[in-house]
Amino acid sequence: MRNQPTMNAMTDTTSRRNAPPAGIELRQAVTVLPHPGPLPLGEGETQPASVVRGGVSLPARQRVGSLSQRERTGVREIAPAFSEGTPCQSSYGLGFGKRNPPGSFRRQVPFRPHLLVCGLLSAAFVLTSTAADWPGFRGPNRNGTIAGPLKLRAGEPEKVWEAEVGSGHASCAVVGGRLYTFSSSGNGTIVCLDAGKGSPVWTRHANTWSGSTTPAVEGGRVYVLAALQAPTLHCCDAATGELRWKRDLPAPTGDRQYGHAGSPVVWRNLVFLNAGGGVALDKATGQPAWSHEGFPGLAAPVLFQWKGVECVAFFGGDQLIVREALTGKEKFRVPWQTELAVNACDPIVLGERLFLCSGYGKGRALYDFSSGRPELRWERGQGNGHAFSSGFVLGGELYFFGHGRFACLDLASGDTHWEWPGGGSAIAVGDHVIRVSEQGNVDIARVSRSGHELVRSFDVGMREMKNAPAYANGRLFFRNEKGRLACWQVGE
Description:
By secondary structure, the protein is mostly beta strands. It is built from one helix and 40 strands. β16 and β17 form a beta hairpin. The longest helix is centred in the first third of the chain and has 5 residues. The relative contact order is 0.17.
């Protein structure tokens, strides 16, 4: 991307050539550091009637449990299955660096388990998600926001630990005291650290040349999207890293310049992937619920409910497609073409309005889809969007990145209420916005329609930071393109 959505190219043609046929592969070898506990296998499951793949009815398993939701203007947004917080409008962020074409050589940055040594853990340890966890890209609500409050520590923010995890642009998931991320080093490495100490727990190889998808963690499983010529979803045991299954996904029908970067989204019994024209897999087995050919984009799927039907939006390489979540049936689409097919900012759904934002020759726009046929309300062209940093809704206002600034948007006109110079990425914890520049400057501020109030600033000493940070238990987790990952204590 420009601020460049480029991926570090890594290929392993020999491994690809000798790869098994498409389908499930169970329990391969894995590098595991000692871990003492079993893992809960999740909630019970029952059989619904069927789901549809390509117009064919197939049996599927459906998780039993309540659905976190929120009513607003005829549309109820669906929170992912691992979310226990209050769901808000969904959006995501994404970072990229300089791209090397597949097959090119570059120095690999090894995973270095030389930092803090893992402490002894109780044999009764069980890895479970809590309300304070950050189980996927941009948090428990998958929209860059988490319920607060954020009570800042009395002193200055303090670095707790730092580790090397290998090059790439994936952010982090933090669940049950463990941190999970993905690297393109070593032709693809899934990394698990002790979130409290930064010490290694396990690593696992997953062939990829673009380590840009953030793992999703739910029900004792870690889901990671890797890609060589075509994408593959890996499902691993969160405690040990042991492979439970993997599934090859549809190859793109267009030139997917920067690989596959949309992080997986888990909902009920399904995992959604921005691959092909949209894919849903059974989260327990990897069997397809439905799958469509097409040209994927670089954003993560976005879940919402419209007119009583659960829907999922896929921001593709040349258009946005909305499908029914359970069946994959198309509801509507919005053409959206950018240079090099870089659609990486996740759409934001507000009632029956849809906010889209991109760089690479496009900008930002608002559509009304209440009739089922999206109608353009306004559009601001080239230079008025961002290549990869997504916005979010906080306190009823929409905040986004555009033309090198963080801004509060006037939804009625498409203009801005105010603009704060500087790009980067941002998340919101309670009523605090945490903005991180690519140069490693961190600003913590309170924002509203009337402006922003800077509360705290510090420098993490890292450059080339193009992904959104993770937050858990008063700590922020930052990662840069070259593979440095640091934990900072900012809250009490």
